[in-house]
């Protein structure tokens, strides 16, 4: 099959267009013909070697896939060749206490498609049958591929970790990122008032179109004061953040007394200084978050079917242009997902 092979760790140039033997589906596995694969920052971290530095090479990146079931392995009963699907990116043992209690993203053997196993920068991908979900019929392939990883991540942050309530003020950092595009919509679905931050007037305007009630430019010094003003001096009750060390001091200041911050990344660096007095005296909660239980894809897809959650595709490129896609993602030039068409 044709694929974009990661042949070394490094810059976008390590991604090479080539041929490799297509994987065969084993028992309870399905081979999917990839139609679209969305890029995530995780792809960049794996490419650079900051995530999974010991992965055998060549490797195939790509966690977010939409496609058509091409063939099924022994024992597969729920799907047949020809069905349109989206892939759930988390793979876990399915037997341990955490898997069986619905916390499969805390399974000791938890893997992400495209990180710990071959992903979707290819014509075909093999995944366990339990990782398939029907593709929402009204979406394009590119839109469908834009859903899983970012909406799952945002769902666990907003719903499971922050437990956002109607009427709360929710601050969503870096509104142009895939996770934040999803978090704005999910927080609105749960009845919150959303304050979104971004770095340019164009992205702030796009955040408003997604449903953000207020927008703040976080490139302006002291931007947390603006969040305070918008909340009558209180600050945000709940914060969705993955912006990292550069913005962390202001994120803490922008959070209300008793507020919660959910963190799912640290784009600008992970070595940050936390004023501990703010944590205990103002009674802040910091809630780490990575991915979500596979089960959360079901409510997400129901809301997508109803048109209440919408993937945002910022740019579509052919699969061969994966390296260019990585550059665009890293430069943060795009509002919404960068998607490769296969
Ligand atoms: Zn498990």
TrEMBL record:
<dbReference type="GO" id="GO:0016491">
    <property type="term" value="F:oxidoreductase activity"/>
</dbReference>
<dbReference type="Pfam" id="PF00107">
    <property type="entry name" value="ADH_zinc_N"/>
</dbReference>
<dbReference type="InterPro" id="IPR013154">
    <property type="entry name" value="ADH-like_N"/>
</dbReference>
<dbReference type="InterPro" id="IPR036291">
    <property type="entry name" value="NAD(P)-bd_dom_sf"/>
</dbReference>
<feature type="domain" description="Enoyl reductase (ER)">
    <location>
        <begin position="10"/>
        <end position="340"/>
    </location>
</feature>
<dbReference type="InterPro" id="IPR013149">
    <property type="entry name" value="ADH-like_C"/>
</dbReference>
<protein>
    <submittedName>
        <fullName>Alcohol dehydrogenase zinc-binding domain protein</fullName>
    </submittedName>
</protein>
<keyword id="KW-0521">NADP</keyword>
<dbReference type="Pfam" id="PF08240">
    <property type="entry name" value="ADH_N"/>
</dbReference>
<dbReference type="InterPro" id="IPR051603">
    <property type="entry name" value="Zinc-ADH_QOR/CCCR"/>
</dbReference>
<dbReference type="InterPro" id="IPR020843">
    <property type="entry name" value="ER"/>
</dbReference>
<dbReference type="InterPro" id="IPR011032">
    <property type="entry name" value="GroES-like_sf"/>
</dbReference>
């Amino acid at each position: 099959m044709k694929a974009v092979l990661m042949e070394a760790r490094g810059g976008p140039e390590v991604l090479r267009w080539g041929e490799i033997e297509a994987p065969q589906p084993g028992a309870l596995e399905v081979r999917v013909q990839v139609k679209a694969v969305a890029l995530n920052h995780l792809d960049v971290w794996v490419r650079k070697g900051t995530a999974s530095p010991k992965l055998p090479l060549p490797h195939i990146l790509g966690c977010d896939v939409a496609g058509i079931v091409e063939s099924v392995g022994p024992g597969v009963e729920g799907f047949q060749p020809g069905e349109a699907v989206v892939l759930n990116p988390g793979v876990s043992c399915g037997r341990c206490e955490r898997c069986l209690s619905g916390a499969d993203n805390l399974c000791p053997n938890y893997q992400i498609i495209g990180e710990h196993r071959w992903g979707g920068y290819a014509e075909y991908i093999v995944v366990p049958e339990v990782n398939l979900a029907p593709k929402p019929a009204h979406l394009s392939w590119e839109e469908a591929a834009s859903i899983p990883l970012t909406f799952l991540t945002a769902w666990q942050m907003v719903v499971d970790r922050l437990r956002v309530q109607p009427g709360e003020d929710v601050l969503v950092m870096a509104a142009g990122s895939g996770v934040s595009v999803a978090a704005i919509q999910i927080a609105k679905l749960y009845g919150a008032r959303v304050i979104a931050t971004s770095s340019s007037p164009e992205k702030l305007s796009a955040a408003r179109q997604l449903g953000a009630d207020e927008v703040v430019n976080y490139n302006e010094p002291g931007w947390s004061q603006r969040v305070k003003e918008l909340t009558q001096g209180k600050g945000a009750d709940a914060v969705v953040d993955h912006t990292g060390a550069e913005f962390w001091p202001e994120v803490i200041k922008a959070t209300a007394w008793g507020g919660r911050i959910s963190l799912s990344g640290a784009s600008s660096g992970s070595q940050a200084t936390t004023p501990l007095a703010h944590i205990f005296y103002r009674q802040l909660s910091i809630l780490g978050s990575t991915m979500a239980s596979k089960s959360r894809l079901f409510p997400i897809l129901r809301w997508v079917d109803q048109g209440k959650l919408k993937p945002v595709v910022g740019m579509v490129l052919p699969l061969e242009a994966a390296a260019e896609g990585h550059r665009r993602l890293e430069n943060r030039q795009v509002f919404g997902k960068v998607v490769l068409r296969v």
